[in-house]
Automatic annotation (TrEMBL):
InterPro entries: GlfT2_C, GlfT2_N, Nucleotide-diphossugar_trans. Residues 12-21 have a biased composition (Basic and acidic residues). Pathway: Cell wall biogenesis; cell wall polysaccharide biosynthesis. It comes from Allokutzneria multivorans. Residues 1-29 are annotated as: Disordered. Belongs to the glycosyltransferase 2 family. Residues 1-10 have a biased composition (Polar residues). Keywords: Glycosyltransferase, Transferase. Residues 460-656 form the Galactofuranosyltransferase-2 C-terminal domain. This is Glycosyltransferase. Residues 42-186 form the Galactofuranosyltransferase GlfT2 N-terminal domain. PANTHER family: GALACTOFURANOSYLTRANSFERASE GLFT2, RHAMNOSYLTRANSFERASE WBBL.
Amino acid sequence: MAEQQSTATAQGRDDAPDAKLSDVSSVRVAGRNSEVPANRVLQRVIFPRDEDPLDVRPLYVDEPSNVSNRVHFTSRRSVTVPSSTKTSFAAYFNAFPASYWKRWTWVSDVVLRMTVRGSGRVDVYRSKPSGDIVHLQGKAVRGAKNWTVLEFHVSLQPFEDGGWIWFDVFTEDAQLEIKDAVWSTDKDLPEQKVSVGICTIRPQDAVIALHALGEDPAVLDVVGKVFVVDQGGKRVRDEPGYPEAVRRLGDKLEVIEQANLGGSGGFTRALYEGMENTDCEQILLLDDDIRLEPDSVLRANAFARAAASPVVVGGHMLNLQARARLHSFGEVVDLKSATWRKAPGAVTDHDFGEEPLRETEELHLRIHGTYNGWWMCLFPRQVIDEIGLPLPLFIKWDDAEYALRAGAHGFPTVSLPGAAVWHMPWTDKDDATDWTAYFHVRNRLIMAALHSPYDVRGPLLKQGLKLSLRHLFSMEYSTVALHQKAIEDFLEGPDKLFETLGSKRPEILKIRNEYSDAHILPSAREFPPPTFDPVKAERLLKPPVNPVVIAARAALSLAHHLKEPDREAIDRPQINVSAQAGRWFLLGALDSATVSNADGSGVAFRRRDPKLFKQLMARALNNHRRLAKEWPRVQREYRQALPQLSSRDAWKQLFGS
């Protein structure tokens, strides 16, 4: 039995001017054959895994918080909607990001296909870039005792600038069961396998990711190989869960043990192995310290297969500590200031538990980013063939540099909604001030030298000197020392990047360890109670915003840091402050303080040292003068060295393979 139905009314918000969309959309009852060929599936409708906590629920279904009737997830692919219930599948993992498929792929229309049993109504909606909602089509199911297949055909024509598609379900006096719902196409996607690469120094986390990869036959069908590049002191093979990972993945799993070459060395090894030792058409990089939604692998794979021309497909970052929160929706590199930031229009730290997709206008506009972090990022083989391998940068900026290089060769990066992993947000890390501060600065300079079309010396000098003062006022002498080392190494040129890839981190750790502010103690209880007036500290913590006030506060801090400190403050912190309160406009008025680290696991005892302050400030001034003067020479050297730094032969020699 088949029937066509178009409707301009529904139990929801309607938009009569868009009723013409019914001309390009339809619903069909297709009998009992629910099978959609795997090479036509774009995105499966899925539900939480058994091990997922309750707070992930808003990512899979949008249901009113004030009702007692909730849908029941009966498996990863099936759900029961109880009687007298209205629920929406306009959720992050189950709405279809139509605008991205319209813009980047050859798919011109999609088919929502589901198998249902019972009674109820299914309605399909779309959104505009503004977030306005339009009803497209719907179908009532009445007393279906046997499983029946529904198909909803929707054109992607109006989705150039933004918009999602989803379905809602309404029941009255009976329940409705739904299973095997998929967003699909009527055309076959080319078959392409994925080589997955996981770089790890946290073997326990890596094993958890391997279990997730191996749990679903559909995911295993597209995975040709899994390379774990093991760079830690503890080995993956020694973890209790490793035998189960081997059982699930079989001969698809290969663990490569090598010295710690950082993220760039580990991920590059995964790319290298995927290119040299598999015929997989795609290579997917995953961080080890993630929790994986396995269907994200299928979605990235399908998107790349359907792309009108090759694109890099990135996954979003969800917050591992607050699972319903989207931390990163899309990112860009601002080449004029040589900094990374959220993409124009992108949201950050969005809580779907508080603001569902349908109610968040900003989430409906299509976002264009220029790079995606390697917590999850997929590369077509052609991209790597044409642009080479990443640079030997150890960590930080390697992902951004590689994406910018790909973009310059005509391979854009698409951060795909609905493809995501849970990862610790960078706001809970100290990586702007700990040993990684060296790599932040050096590698940012390398990226700017290679890719910025602007004369960035002005911004680099202004930002660099301002940052040096802020850290010095905050008594973070180790951070300033590492920043200066980074500038000095950058000015030496690119010749030693490969040579020092494995040794640079130990060198940096040794330098940092020479400064007392780098030493982390368990708690402020290690010291006598603080003496500073907390009310005065509260007043000082109010951020200055007026430029005149900022300059005045900075001048006072400068004068204070040139004086000898109170002798009692050398051994007794004047105040205990949180990581969030450890700001220059407070600490710049003090002689000492304990400051918690970002994750709250310990404190650093910072003490004012006028001699160190003067030495490091003089070093910073000299290095920034050199940076301005020598930039043209150094930029030329890095650009000339790029082919060798990214060559497969150079990396092959380093790997010894």
